[in-house]
Amino acid sequence: MSEGRRERKKAETRRALSSAALRLAEQLGPDGVTVEAIADAADVSARTFFNYFASKDDAIAGVAPSEASELLTDLLDRPADESPLEALRGMAVAAATRLEPTADELWARHRLTQRHPSLAARRAARFTEVERELAGEIARRTGLDPDLDPYPALVVAAAVGALKVSLSVWQERGRPGPLVEVVDDAFAQLAAGFDLPVPVSTARH
Fold first, then answer.
1. Statement: residue 205 has pLDDT above 60
2. Least C-beta-crowded within 10 Å: which of 60, 90, 92, 181?
3. What is the pLDDT of residue 76?
4. Which residues of 22-59 are buried (b: 16+ CB within 10 A; e: fewer)?
């Protein structure tokens, strides 16, 4: 099996496990879900489950080690001469393109984590890890020390926040167009600063 095909197969299995975990959690509540039930629903063994997720809560929350690597890979793929914010914008646009086809699951997972603080805490902890890795790459690009200089962590936090807010706003608006457009608007706002924009409700009239 080629490396590309192997990676696609792994991604499919990870998605199947995460989708099964979410579906069972919606039906039974997180406490009613077992690793064995998730694995069975995804047609794999419980042993295989642990190749992808550390726990059932991670599977329900959609937290996997590859989550960071995808964002980091997107950032690493950006041209070296881009500004940090432009590089992060490109990363977020790539992420939005991947996430849009799974919008229903994303929204269901968001609602579930809002109702269950332990899931929200796990996902928040994972995002902290992701931001740390991204800040390390921004520090490398800028020659700054990620432990002493606030800029790398600050610009990454703003970029990840823009992606999260874009997802939420896009859902609340009823997904009126491509998610990428909302992400682009959010980054345009970051680049322009934080002068108060015209409210969306006003702009529609």
1. no
2. 181
3. 95
4. bbbbeeeebeebebebbbebbebeeeebeebbeebbbb
Alpha helices (runs of H) in the chain, residue ranges in sequence order: 3-28, 35-41, 46-49, 56-61, 65-76, 84-99, 103-115, 117-142, 151-172, 179-192, 200-203
- What residues contact residue 154 under an 8 Å CB cut-off, 6+ apart? none
Which residues, other chains included, contact 82 with Cβ-Cβ below 8 Å and sequence gap of 6+? 90
Q: How do residues 180-201 score in pLDDT, each as one tens digit? A: 999 999 999 999 886 665 666 5
CATH homologous superfamily for the domain 63-193 = Tetracycline Repressor, domain 2 (1.10.357.10)
Residues of the chain with CATH 1.10.10.60: 1-57
Tokens (6 digits) for 27 = 């039906």
CATH no. for 1-57: 1.10.10.60
Q: CA 150 to CA 139: how far, in whole Å?
A: 10
Rounded to whole angstroms, the Cα distance separating 176 from 142 reads 37
Could you tell me the two tokens for 145? 């020390």
